[in-house]
Write a structure and sequence with these properties.
Blueprint lengths: L2 H7 L3 H10 L5 H30 L1 H11 L2 H12 L3 H31 L2 E2 L2 H28 L3 H29 L8 H4 L7 H24 L1 H8 L3 H26 L3 H30 L10 H19 L2 E2 L1 H20 L9
Helix pairs in contact: 2-3, 2-10, 3-4, 3-10, 3-12, 5-6, 5-10, 5-13, 6-12, 6-13, 6-14, 6-15, 7-8, 7-13, 7-14, 8-13, 12-13, 14-15
């Protein structure tokens, strides 16, 4: 049975999660698991519908669609988390998405691709540019976090720093998309786009699937977020661990596995574009956009202030990923090292007590 078929079979959990959430007596942990499984195929459908639209609209508009909707599932989940006041979970999911792409996805891609194909190569110029942008993105997240120590008693200054940084990050992301257009490079994060030559769906069908999947994810995200508090109490997990490990996997697992499959086919350049490109989109677009969404909601404002544990993990992951990208070659050993770092961080965040989750 193909991977795509297995993912589509998970759609059965959409009605199961919806019914379970409304039936009295069903464990919130089961509701959380069902809704998480339901989000996986829905996120995959959004990506597939976006790729189908890209075939009809051409590479430039299609690339813009991918750049905008690439992390739609995770963005919707975090919006509902913001509405529920789970700001810690949202910040953790941003950290987790970046770590997952740089360490888990790239690690699996390098490991499995290297074991099958030996030393693999990719374009040094593109990978190097993405590596530099990645370091810039992490630096942009570091500044508000580190300077917050001096601004903690001045709420207006805290907010102003996060808002100003967010605006600049969005501008840089927009410039990177513009640069990709002018250079004739694909800005799509999905490697499948490179392999599609003929549209399987009409524009109307693609739009209908995109709309239906988005609505379903909105519903499932509300169910998922609503069960988070019960899961933390029942299983003893912290919001930080759920945000860093579980939420990013749920929102991006389909894309992650596709990136690994492409690496096994010796298309390492496409695989690197997925892992690095998705990380950049989260850091330079999703994170700053969430700052302004939290302002519009009128609740607790999400500042770009991450705790020291998150910052250490982000700096370590970005440095390792950038160094690997610079030489234009990869081996299975580099993949094993990336996975080792991810597992170590996952263990550390698992044992980190809730009382230690204090922002600088």
């Amino acid at each position: 049975m193909s991977f795509d078929r297995i993912v589509k079979l998970l759609l059965i959990f959409v009605p199961i999660a919806f019914i379970a959430e409304r039936v009295a007596g069903v464990s919130p942990v089961l509701v959380f698991i069902f809704s998480a499984l339901a989000v996986i195929p829905l996120a995959d459908l959004i990506g597939e519908a976006t790729e189908e639209l890209a075939v009809h609209t051409g590479p430039k508009i299609g690339g813009l669609l991918n750049a905008t909707l690439g992390n739609a599932a995770e963005l919707i989940i975090t919006i509902f988390a913001l509405r529920e006041g789970l700001v810690e979970l949202v910040r953790a999911s941003i950290t987790g998405s970046i770590l997952g792409n740089l360490l888990l996805v790239m690690g699996l891609s390098l490991l499995l691709g290297g074991l099958k194909n030996g030393i693999q190569s990719f374009d040094r110029r593109t990978a190097g540019l993405n590596g530099v942008m990645l370091m810039l993105a992490v630096a942009a997240l570091l500044v508000p976090s580190l300077f917050d120590v001096a601004l903690v008693e001045n709420r207006a200054a805290e907010l102003g720093l996060s808002e100003g940084t967010a605006v600049i990050m969005i501008i840089i992301y927009g410039l990177s998309v513009l640069y990709a257009f002018r250079q004739g490079e694909p800005v799509t994060r999905e490697p499948a786009a490179e392999e599609i030559h003929h549209a399987k769906w009409s524009v109307r069908t693609a739009l209908a699937v995109l709309a239906a999947s988005t609505i379903a994810i909105v519903i499932m995200s509300e169910v998922l977020v609503g069960a988070v508090e019960h899961v933390t109490e029942t299983l003893g997990l912290t919001e930080l661990f759920i945000g860093i490990i579980i939420v990013p996997l749920v929102g991006n697992v389909a894309e992650h596995l596709v990136a690994v499959q492409v690496a096994i086919k010796n298309k390492m350049e496409l695989s690197m574009a997925v892992s690095l490109g998705s990380s950049l989109q989260i850091a330079l677009f999703v994170a700053p956009v969430l700052v302004f969404i939290s302002l519009l909601m009128g609740g607790e404002t999400m500042l770009l202030v991450f705790n020291n544990f998150e910052l250490i993990a982000l700096v370590a992951a970005s440095l390792i990923a950038a160094l690997i990208a610079l030489d234009g070659e990869s081996t299975w050993l580099e993949g094993a090292m990336l996975l080792a770092v991810y597992i170590i961080l996952a263990i550390a965040f698992f044992f980190l007590p809730a009382t230690a989750q204090i922002h600088p």
